[in-house]
Design a protein that fits this description.
The protein is mostly helical. It has 5 helices and no strands. About 15% of the residues are buried.
């Protein structure tokens, strides 16, 4: 069987890696070995942080809801409990948006939740 050399394939792979690391500093976008390390690390960070972003946003929404709830004389946990009792099904993202953009509607939700 004939020997297969990796010339064109290796070149293509190097070009692909260097293209991915284009914005990196110094040798991280010039030298293949350093660029490959940088690429692997950055792809891992991207994978990890797609999951972390979801956590961070939920924490932000809860902080906003809590702040707005306290302005209306109730704590976050009591608000969520009251909403469950009254069967008000608004997710935290929408509730946080209400708290920021439409405080009157948020106050109405709080009042309804406090009724229970």
């Amino acid at each position: 069987m004939a020997r297969v050399k990796t010339g064109p394939n290796r070149r293509r792979r190097h070009i692909k890696v260097l293209k991915i690391t284009k914005g990196q500093f110094g040798s991280r976008h010039r030298l293949f070995r350093r660029a490959n390390e940088a690429m692997l690390k950055s792809l891992w960070y991207a994978y990890r942080d797609r999951r972390t972003r979801k956590r961070d946003l939920r924490r932000l929404w809860i902080a906003r809801i809590n702040a707005a709830a306290r302005l209306n004389g109730i704590t976050y946990s009591r608000l969520i409990h009251g909403m469950r009792r009254e069967q008000i099904t608004i997710n935290r993202k929408m509730l946080a948006d209400l708290a920021v953009r439409d405080p009157k509607t948020f106050a109405a939700v709080v009042k309804k939740a406090q009724a229970s």
